[in-house]
Amino acid sequence: MTRHQAYRTLCHTGLAALWVFHGVLNWIWLTQDTLPPRWDESVHLQTAWDYQQYLRQGKWSRLWTTPLKPGHPPYPPLYHWTAATILGSSKTAEDRAAWINWLYLVLLCFSLYWIGFTLKDHGTGLFAALLVSCLPLNLDLFRKHLTDPALIALVAFAYACLIRSLHFQFIGWSLAFGAACGLGMLSKWTFGTYLLPAVWIWLSALLHKKTRLHALSAAALAAIVFLPWLWNNLGPLLIRLPQAAADVQPGVASGIQEWGNWSWYFWTILRDTYPPFFFLFLASLLFYPYLRMPSKKLLLFWILASYLFWSAVPNKNPRYIFPAVSALCIITAVGLPAKVRRILTLPILLFAVYFSFSNRPAKNFTWLGRSLPYLFSEPPRQQDWRHPEILGAIAQRRDLSRPFSNVTLVSNHPYLNGPTLTWAALQAGVSGSIVVRGTRKRLGEMSEFVLYKSGDKGPGQERTTLANAAQKIEDRKSWFYRAFEPAQGWRMPDGSLVTLFRQKRLKHPPLFKTLYKTAGFETGHVRVKNLTVWLGPWRWREGVYETADVAAQEISLRGLTLRDPKFRMKKVAFVPAEPGNWTDLRFLKMDSVQILSGTLSKKTLEQFLEARVKGLSNAQIALGNPLHIQADFKGKTAHLILWLNYDKKKKLLQLRLGQTRWGPYRIPGKWLASLAHKDLSLRPNPETPFEIQLEQIRIAQDTIELQ
Hints:
This protein is of the alpha+beta class and 707 residues long. Helix content is 44%, strand content 22%. Helix 1 runs antiparallel to helix 4 (93-119) and helix 7 packs across helix 14 (322-335).
C-alpha cells in the first residue's frame, strides 16, 4: 500500500468514525432528554404520523398531498416520508424519529468530505465534515424534528454533485445534481434560495453546446422528482406560504433599508457558534482572496447569495442561514494547513461533547459593544410536563355520551401548547375523543374543558385573546366561575401551576324569563336585528334548556347576512357574560340546531366574497346548480363554477369546484388540492360540536333558501 493509499484509507476510516461518534453522542443525549417537542416540531411529527397511516392503509396516492395543519402551509414531504418509516407509537416516538436526522447528518458529512477532497485532498474533506457536524448550531438543530436537517444536507449534496460535474461537463454527475435538486425541493420550499449561484452556472451551461444537453437533463430530472408534489399542493401553497413568509419576529428590524436587517444573521452566527469557530471562519474569509482552488467563486457566492437573500426577507430565523454555513466550513478547511487541522481535531470533538452534556451556565464576552455567550451548552433535560397525566385526567372525566370533548388551552409555552398537546394525544390514542383548541375571543365556548397555565405562557402571552382569557380565569368574580370549576392541577417544571377546569352542571336557569326581544345588538363578528328568543322548559337533572327558539329579521356573521332566520336549539346551556345580560351569552353545550328557515340573497353573497377574499372586487354570482362566480382579482377576471349538493341522509354539504379560470389561464383542479373538494359535515365537529338539522337547500334565481 502506497503512502497516498494509506492516507486515503485513514481519512475514510476517520469519516466513518465521525459518523459513529455522532451516533453515540445522539444516542446518549436522546436517552437522557425527556422534553416534549415544541410547536413546529409537533406539527412535523403529526404530519409524519399522517403519512405513516396512509402507508399502513395502502393509500399511496395520499402521499403526494400534504395534510394541512392549522396555521401552517403544506410542507414538502421528504422529511415526513423518511420519519414515517421509523416513527413509533410509544412515548419514545420522538427519539426514534430523531435518528432520521442522524442519517441526514451522515449525508451532510459525506457531502462536505466529497467537496473538500475534490477541491484539495482527503484530509481537507474530513476536517470540513468534522467542523460542520460539531458546530453548536448544527448539533442542536439535528436533534430537533424539523425539515431543516434534510434541507442542509441536500444543499451540500447538490453543490457536491455540481462541483464533481465540473459545471455540467459530465452527464452522470449532472443527473446526480438534478436528482439532488428535486429531493432538495421536496425537503423544503426554500431550497432554491441557497442554489442561486448554481442557477447562474446552469444558465451559462445552456449557452455551450457541450453542456447544454447535460444541463437540460439535470433540470428535467429535478422536475420529474419534484413536480408531482407541487402539482398536488400548489393552490394551498400559494395561499398560505405568503402569510408565513410575511411574519416578522419580535426584535427584528423591519424594512430592507434598516442596517439591523443586514447584520442580523452576522450576530446570529456569532451567537450560535463558539467564538473559536466564528473567528476561524472570519479569518478564512479574510484570507479567501489568497486561496488557490477550483470553484473558488462558487463557494463565496453560495455564502453571499444566501446571506443577502435571507437578510432581505422580513421573517428572520437562525435556521435560515445554516445551509450557507457549510460553505464557510469548506473554505476554512481548504485554507488551514494540514498540521493546524490535526491540532484542532481533538478540541473540536471536545467542544461537541461539552455542548451536548455540560450543565455549566454560559459565560459572556463583549465584542463590538455586544455581550455574547461563549462555552454555552444544550444538555439533555429531564423534565416531565405530564402530558399523559393531563390527557388521562380529561379522558377519565369527559362526557362519554358525546363523540369528542373540546379542550380550550390557555397557554403557548414551548412545552405546553396546542400542537404539542395534540401530538401527545395522538401518541396516547385519544386524538379522536380529545380535541385541543387554542384560545378564542370567547373563552371556553362550546368546550367541555379549559386547561390553564399560570405564570409564563410563552411567546404571545401579551396577545389580546390570551391575555383576556387569563384575566377572566384569574378573576374569581368573572362569568368563567359560573360556568367552569377546577377539577385537577399539576405543578410544572418551571414552577407554574396547570389547572384543568371542567364545565359545571348548571343548578339554576341562567335567565329568569322565557321570552326575550330586542331591536338589535352587535357583539364581535355577529350583528342581529329584531331578535326574539323563546326559552323552553328547564331540565334540572341535566342543567340545560329543553329548547330555545330563535327568530330574527336578520343575523350577520362575519359579513354573511341570513334574512328571516328561524331555528331551534335543543338541550342548550349557556351563561350570561354579565348577570341578566341575555344579549351577551357564553354557550357551553348544545345537542343540535334545527334550521327552520332562512334566506341568503345573491347580493349578500357577493358582498361577503368581496369582504372575505383580499384583492377581490366586482363579484357577480349567477345562482343555480352549478353556481357561476365571476370577479376581478389582481388585475384579471376570475371565473369559477361551483357545484353544491346536500346529502340529507349523510348530513353532508358537498362543494365541488368545476372549471376555474383566472384571466386567460385555466387552473387545474389538482393545484387546488383539498380546496377543490369540500365536504362539510353537519354532524358534530370541533368547530360546531352539535348536530345541524336541515331539510333541504333550495337555490332560486336570486336567493338560496334553507328549509
